[in-house]
User: Which sequence fits this backbone?
């Protein structure tokens, strides 16, 4: 009885699915986020090679999220499922914060990649000398020259010029390194926040699907419509 009170299951709007593009973007971004959270937050516990595409995946998340926002602004989504006012407020808040986190987490990663002296610059040569001297003092072999990061092994990651140029000259290398360390801490903290928001998002979807008995997962492309539902949704 409580479920019936939450919404009329005869309302065709309940069975309206998101567009195919929105569904594809949703699951593609979800898969990439799952990989990045695992490879980033558990980097020390997983095989070294598991981290190989962390940067590529993060930048892809950033690009796809921008596409998804553009699609959302130009294509009206189906109406929200029947829910209490506080649930509606929480759903809107979590979605808004998720979009912000899906942009901010990979952006901070991009800033970290850029926070290195540009290749071939005086600052890069100075940084390499400093690293070699530290390695010699610690009895380690001199580190190899830093290789440019590639997106999916194809194209080099474009550097954010104002960030990279902080270390173009030797005098800016120390400050750039400190900025890199600061952004690394921000990146990790926001990644944990993203994980928390995902738990809320997934928990809410499962509640609607199994506790409230509403077709939440079918709206996002998981499962086929039953014949009765298709009839109700037909014009």
Assistant:
């Amino acid at each position: 009885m409580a479920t019936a009170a939450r919404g009329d299951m005869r309302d065709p709007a309940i069975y309206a699915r998101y567009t195919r593009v929105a569904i594809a973007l949703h699951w593609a971004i979800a898969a990439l986020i799952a990989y990045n959270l695992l490879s980033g937050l558990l980097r020390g516990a997983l095989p070294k090679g598991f981290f190989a595409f962390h940067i590529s995946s993060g930048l892809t998340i950033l690009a796809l999220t921008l596409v998804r926002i553009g699609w959302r602004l130009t294509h009206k989504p189906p109406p929200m499922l029947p829910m209490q006012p506080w649930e509606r407020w929480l759903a809107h808040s979590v979605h808004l914060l998720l979009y912000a986190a899906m942009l901010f987490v990979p952006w901070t990663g991009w800033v970290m990649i850029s926070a290195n002296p540009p290749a071939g610059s005086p600052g890069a040569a100075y940084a390499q000398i400093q690293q070699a001297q530290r390695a010699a003092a610690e009895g380690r072999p001199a580190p190899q020259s830093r290789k440019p990061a590639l997106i999916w092994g194809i194209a080099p990651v474009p550097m954010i010029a104002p960030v990279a140029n902080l270390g173009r000259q030797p005098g800016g290398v120390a400050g750039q390194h400190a900025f890199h360390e600061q952004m690394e801490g921000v990146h990790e903290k926001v990644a944990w926040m993203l994980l928390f928001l995902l738990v809320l998002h997934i928990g809410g979807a499962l509640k609607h699907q199994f506790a409230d008995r509403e077709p939440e997962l079918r709206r996002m492309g998981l499962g086929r419509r039953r014949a009765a539902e298709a009839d109700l949704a037909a014009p």
Q: What stands out?
A: Confidence is low (pLDDT under 50) at residues 1-10, 227-235. The first helix runs from residue 2 to 6. Residues 71 and 137 are 55 Å apart (CA to CA).
